Amino acid sequence: MKIQKEIIMFDKGKSFKLFSPSLKNCFFWHYHPEIELVYVEATNGIRHVGKDISGFTESDLLLIGSNVPHLNFDYGIQTECKQLVLQMHENFLQDIILPVPEYEEIKNLLERSYLGLSFSGETKKIIVERLQSMKEKNSFASLIGLMEILQILANSTDVKELNKEDTRIKWFLNDKIRMGTIYDYIHENYDRKPNVNEIAKIVSLSTPAFCRYFKKQTNMTFTDFVNNYRINQAKIFLLKDCSVTEVCFQVGFESLSYFNKLFKQHTGETPSEFKKKQFKPIEINGRIGIITKESSCNK
Length: 299
What we know:
Elements: E1 4-5, E2 16-19, E3 29-31, E4 36-49, E5 52-64, E6 70-71, E7 81-88, H1 92-97, H2 104-112, E8 117-119, H3 121-134, H4 139-154, E9 159-161, H5 179-189, H6 196-202, H7 207-218, H8 222-239, H9 244-250, H10 256-267, H11 271-278, E10 281-284, E11 287-290
Parallel strand pairs: 1-3
Antiparallel strand pairs: 2-7, 3-6, 4-5, 4-7, 5-8, 8-9, 10-11
Helix pairs in contact: 2-4, 3-4, 6-7, 8-11
């Protein structure tokens, strides 16, 4: 469960690969020298790229730079999850992009990707369609398609930098803590009261040393991380049409007002507003109804 270097193999004569991985229930905290474009589609999930730990709803499109540690995006997802991953050869930037002056904007994009870039809006929609169409093309047409995708991303304003500093693997080489153990502990205890002293003991650190380590690795305190995890879990239950009050206690909060306040801080909207946006009225044969999802409010 320690951070791992992923060895990526390419077909002969190919400078990139496009595939759909599935690692559900597997904790794969890893890095690789290849730049990676990832599209993930799921009801709700967690993204952990570098030091950024945040959630996504419905889908996410990310460009992850060389040697930036990240967690597989289907980790812990219990619902249906689809992924498209495009990995560029380790020398793609050096050999293909840098020698061509017309690729200046793409060069800047790939050089900035070490921060972890999340794309949304119309950009995400366009890129996903183009990734899907690339699967049906021959090698040369696919390469042209990739360059067009990178050019669109390079000029997009629908982008968010996930990290504010360099988080490439050199910052994590001395990591002796099993992050998978921490994630597993929080997942099993988030609805109760995760104890920082207990998890520190599990990973063989004193509590002060664990708190320093955790803050350095994630830019979050252990309490903030647990609350962030709880909010992401709350989104899943709300999307299953559970009541706000039920969800509040289901994910471990003891105060409804505090849950509402924290949820809005994380998402920009209250749990009720989030739920209302997901369950919109529709008209069928002159009647008004609500699109609902199967309700199951168990952990």
